[in-house]
Amino acid sequence: MMIATAALPAASRSVAALLAGEGGVPADELRRLERKLDRARGLAADAEAKEGRDAGARAWLRDLRDALYVLGDSVDDFRRAAARRHQQGRRSLRHWFTLPSNMDRNQYKTFKTSISSLNKQMDGILQKGSELGLQAINQEGQGGSSEFSCGVVLDDDTLGDIENVKNKLIDVLTERKSPNKVMIIVGDSGIGKTTLARKIHDDHRTRNAFTIVVWVSVFNDLDGIGLLSAIVKAAGGNPSGEENRVQLEAMLAAILKGKRFFMVLDDVRSHQIYENSLDAHLHVCGHGSRILITTRDESISTQMKDAYIYWVKKLTFQDCWSLLCRASCLDESLHGDILRNIGIAIIQKCNKLPMAVKIIGSVLRTKEPTREAWQRVYESEGWSFRELRDHVHGLTGAIYLGYHDLPLHLKQCFIYLSLFPEGFVIRQQFVSQLWISEGLNDERDNCSPEKTAEEYYRELLSRNLLQPEIGNDDITRCTMHDQIRSFLQFFVNDKNFTGELKTSINGNSSEGLRHVWIRSNLLRTTVEDIGAVESLKTVILYKNPLGNRSLDKLFKGLKYLQVLDLGGTEIKYIPRTLESLYHLRLLNLSLTRITELPESIECLTNLQFLGLRYCNWLHNLPNGIGKLQYLRYLDLRGTNLYQVLPSLVNLKQLSTLHGFVVNRKSKREDDPTGWPLEDLKSLDALRSLQILRLERVSDPLRVQEAMLEKKSHLKELELCCSNDDRQSEVQQEDAKTLKDVFDCLSPPHCLKSLKIVSYYGKVFPDWLPNLSNLQRLVLTDCKFCEHLPNLGQLTELKFLTITACSKLVTIKQEQTGFSSADMPSLVKFRLENCPKLCNLPSGIKNSKVLTSMQLHHIDSLQIIEDLPVLKELVIQACNELKKISNIPLLEVLIVLGCSRLKDVTEVHLSHVRIVDREIRELPDWVATNASKLQTFTIVGRAELLERLLPNHEDWEIIRHISKVYANLPDESPFFTYTKSSADFHVDQRIGERGNPSALLAAEIPHEALNISLDNSVVRTSRVGVPRVPLRRISTLKRAIRHYLVPYLIMAAILMQVLSYLLQNRTSREIRLVQTLFIFFTTVFLLLLVFLE
């Protein structure tokens, strides 16, 4: 991706570098080109300012970009030829004269011809610029600031009336008698449809009401079968992509049958849905299943009969003003009076769309808080940009201003993201690698490219041009709104493409196309098609079912390729012609079935990123990898290497190394099954490191040679052992040796994330409590440690996870435990499979932000108490847990199989879910908290659920709960009860289990109790009616059992008697008598069944 004003300085530097070299270049032509590039810089700035409203300026910029691409290709060819001759080691006498030894006269003539042609092309471009009236603009100070006074705005979804609207819509969705199986939320782009739907989806009332809750993001290129496949996948299925509609519907039916199901289809278009098209997804579900659709297409609401329609309302001016102040980091008490009027005018420009307000707020954040500065934003010509086909009043203009406010380096990185497919989750690490591979990062002193790319990513989030992925705590994953994506693609549609590669793209020839991403659901594109587009610099085929056919042609044809992602494809081998990709910076072969890499990989001297994750058939590496001196990223996670050959000591720029297998010897030649730990000594640029098989190291002095404590850039560290042969016990000497080895590792204090896996020492390493900047700590399968060290100094710790520490007995504050000032920053705490742990760390009660905690299989834990800010608690299989107390803000409690829990006090519960297939009656604590509960879900055996029926043993407990959902062990519905409407509904299929034939109605003040069996409803009279008959299928079964069998026996005997008595009659008379006999006896039988 290229922004002319950002690319021109780089092009000038490239030309200057050639002129400053050893010679062998057409110096006169290059100097002419250098002067023309300088002239073009000022004109390009003016053209970019006008491109939103001037087609001529857009065409001029397109021609300029093409010329810069030609220059880049010519320089690449020049350097490629020089590198080839250098590799061949050819030398001649010409090395001492003007023409260097690595460049013959033919190559010189070719390069000179190319530059001469480019000069003529630039002459025409500059002449055209003059004809268009472009003026040279001084770019100093343009492009906005990269410094922000506050971080990412994340919680704007609490503005306005969204909470009340959410509650209203949830009431409609969970109302059993509602005729609307489908709800449609309609509104413009950026108005908050997805935000509202997500809040409904995540709400605990929704989670308790439905057995299965799924979210499906609907992309524009999904047809009916594609949408159905996405639904199956979201519901837990595993479609291969080759199924037809009938097969997919059968898969979905098997998943949903009998379950109460809730599905959100986000951003549906009219061509993807039609009248009654969703019925197939609902008829197999349990009673009360619902589908929620969000759409900007008003026609969908008319296509769907009996759907509940909600039109999203715009925010009020006051709510918009509050959002604008927060997005712009404006202190309203200081500047509110001066800026409020102009702020309201800007909000009107934004059409009161929350997304537009946030983006403009980020623009204003880079301006002085003065009326004049805000007035210039209000009067900007960018508001008039209407070139997009799906233009949205207010939002499109805000996106235009947000984009043009970016600094040049950030603008170029941002527009590159238009390559990502619609709805694709953008991972910070991957996009950073792409930016670095394409040379889009600015080089800064004392700052690694990864650090720079991370700052770019966070600034785009801060400017509200990217949205953090919901549910991701550390904002390393994000998404791009499709309106922003459409805007970016408007400017790069001739250089970027995502979809099916054809001979023409969006009306333009595919010749000159630079970047393609072929979606895995578009199978018609072949390797031959891709290899024919010689100009390509980026090819991403992730998870495409493309095999090895023509891969050789691909490598030979794409000589300018810089990014190649074949991850998840069907390839099994890499041809030797890989060496043709001299300019390749990123190569991803993860999740493929390759068995080896060719030695020719050493020819990829520009390679920076090599992904080999989970290559299960790859067991060794070629020596050539050790010669890739620019390699920054080597990921071998999940790849089981039997023989490791390349030396890593020369990879000085390596910043990420995953899957570093340790050998047993200090010399690689003595043990080729791994790397010497000493090889890490020279890798000072490491930011992320995973070390495997640390138990192989027996000499702690070897560990000191790795010098981890000196790696000042290290942020993430994973230390893993393999102790499969130590399931029950470990020798004291082995445990002590490993402890000494870990003590010598001594990570630096800058570490932010630490994971320790399968450590079999009996005491954790001494340095663990001293990592003062640690934010995430994961301890997994440390099965022989009995105590945690003192974590009191980990004041920055946000996420703590401890799993499978089977001998962890207790955490004692006065010895090795927690002090009263521990972990104030802890946000999430997860404990799993620690069966001997008796107490939780007392320090967690000091956290001011610990709102969520999960405890699984903590068998010896008896009490959970004194957690002042905890709001959500999930406990599973804590077999000895008896009491939960003094958690005053606890709203959500999910209990899975903790049958001994008897006491839950001093809490403020709103939502409770119990899943227990053993208990036979409700725990006493449910009755204590019942009157406060909004929802109560119980999953258990029929015997337990029958006690909850009206006038049965536990009816008096649940009758005071607002909403009750009772499900059988297979999650199929048993009954639903709503207090407000006094509605009690019994699922029909439960009647087959021999339940009582009558239900007693309790006294419900001022209301009647409606007891229904599917579509058959019997209404009681007012308070005091003693009994209500309720017919069940079991009645019919009993009647058939009592009467049908004797009837058949009697009928058979009487038919034989009649045949004997009527043997002298004609056949016609005999048939008449038999027919009359069968008729009257059948009527008699039906009468008996009816009376029963």
Q: What's the CATH topology name of the domain at 494-501 and 511-654? A: Leucine-rich repeat, LRR (right-handed beta-alpha superhelix)
Low-confidence stretches: 90-103, 503-507, 812-818, 990-1007, 1015-1035
Question: On the 0-100 scale, what is the average pLDDT?
Answer: 83
Q: How much helicity do the residues have?
A: 25-40%
Fraction in beta strands: 5-15%
CATH architecture title of the domain at 494-501 and 511-654: Alpha-Beta Horseshoe
Keywords: ATP-binding, Leucine-rich repeat, Membrane, Nucleotide-binding, Plant defense, Repeat, Transmembrane, Transmembrane helix
Protein name: AAA+ ATPase domain-containing protein
GO molecular function: ADP binding; ATP binding
Transmembrane segments: 1043-1061, 1073-1091
Question: What keywords describe this structure?
Answer:
Rossmann fold, membrane, alpha/beta, five-stranded parallel beta sheet, ATP-binding, 1092 residues, transmembrane, 39 strands, ADP binding, 24-stranded mixed beta sheet
What does this structure look like?
With 1092 residues, the chain is of the alpha/beta class. Among the domains are: 131 residues, no CATH class; 151 residues, P-loop containing nucleotide triphosphate hydrolases (Rossmann fold); 91 residues; 63 residues, no CATH class; 152 residues, Leucine-rich repeat, LRR (right-handed beta-alpha superhelix) (Alpha-Beta Horseshoe). It is 34% helix and 15% strand. It contains 29 helices and 39 strands. The strands form six sheets. It has a 24-stranded mixed sheet. The protein has a five-stranded parallel sheet with strand order 2-3-4-1-5, sandwiched between helices. The longest helix is centred in the first third of the chain and has 34 residues. About 6% of the residues have low confidence. This is AAA+ ATPase domain-containing protein.
